[in-house]
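Minutes, project check-in

Agenda point 3 was the complex the collaborators sent over. CS summarized: two entities, 236 residues total, and the question is how they sit relative to each other. Sequences were read into the notes so everyone works from the same version.
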Amino acid sequence: EAGVAQSPRYKIIEKRQSVAFWCNPISGHATLYWYQQILGQGPKLLIQFQNNGVVDDSQLPKDRFSAERLKGVDSTLKIQPAKLEDSAVYLCASSFRFDGESVPEAFFGQGTRLTVV
Amino acid sequence: AQKVTQAQTEISVVEKEDVTLDCVYETRDTTYYLFWYKQPPSGELVFLIRRNSFDEQNEISGRYSWNFQKSTSSFNFTITASQVVDSAVYFCALSDAKGGGGSNYKLTFGKGTLLTVNP
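CS then shared the predicted structure for the full assembly.
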């Protein structure tokens, strides 16, 4: 079974530029998450989708971050304009449903390392 | 609010030593889940285990074992006879159990423990 795919792996941009990250979850996984991991910290949830609907975006800085999952499969996360403090690894994860309910554990991709200079 | 504390920032051991990674959590929920993830240098978070709050039975999987103690809000992870390939950052995480149709599991992670196993 293929894992969660993310691209690009690395990205360097200047502050105030825009950037987009792409994620393709494990096939059949209805729930998709975007996490931000700042160096030396644990991942922090940015947004969670169930199919193509947003379940939780309470920690997403909506003035500059946006995310979509239009067809309920792959997803993009965008930052516009980027700030220096957005330098982090952006992790995408997915989880499946069993017997009509989501399972708690999430399966992660390798992440995109963003450096804002 | 939920909180996970991993007091050990870095641990260094020699191969074949046993090592225990500590995890202490805080939650007001009576039902919750606890997790351990491994993050090797490649960056991907690898799921290791999930425990339900109502199941305090300890678990062993090969060289890995987990000790869940509700009385002390701890969920510690022991690697027996460590190997160089065990070198990674290990994260403990906590989620409430409000899943179901709402599908609102949200992992709260600790800051991680960097384990280095030297040959």
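Noted in discussion: The first strand of chain B starts at residue 3 and ends at 5.
Follow-up: revisit at the next meeting once the mutant set is ready.
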